[in-house]
Amino acid sequence: AQKVTQAQTEISVVEKEDVTLDCVYETRDTTYYLFWYKQPPSGELVFLIRRNSFDEQNEISGRYSWNFQKSTSSFNFTITASQVVDSAVYFCALSGFGQGGKLIFGQGTELSVKP
Amino acid sequence: GAVVSQHPSWVICKSGTSVKIECRSLDFQATTMFWYRQFPKQSLMLMATSNEGSKATYEQGVEKDKFLINHASLTLSTLTVTSAHPEDSSFYICSARHYRHYNEQFFGPGTRLTVL
User: Cβ of B46 and A103 within 8 Å?
Assistant: First the structure.
């Protein structure tokens, strides 16, 4: 069975703080894809990143960075110098190869960045 | 590119009526579309997978007679909530998989359904 766990339900930080959102996944597939999405109050999902299971390189995109560790089945997301506009719900998701593209979402982490 | 639209963006209806939600891929062909449901403060739950020209595949626990899905073309899938009841009130989100990018889904903006 596939599963994604985001243990942090809510996180509140003050602007300019760094924050890390945790994501732990379970899968028996050797080939799989991991995603992060942002869902602002408007509700529309915003794609942030996709990683395949064979690429463990960390990625940085501006203030965003991702740490993928297969050894611990984790795909954590860090926002550096957080801003109020980062306030949203963030979802980690998993798609197994051969699963027809189905996405399994974690429970989501609601990030609140206060000025 | 890779834009997905949903119509309507929100709808309020009376209990017992049926509501149709459209999901369109505007600038690409989508052989597969997915329908998700999201209750407030909860995650997205996959309801069904819709493949063009064939019957939809429903996830366990989703009533196929309640949630009718039609994927009539490579750019349009519809979800009809039949005989809607207040417990069907939710945020419905579709996504479309580009026919060339197997592992990437593009999400629509969602439809908020309120059943009175």
Answer: yes
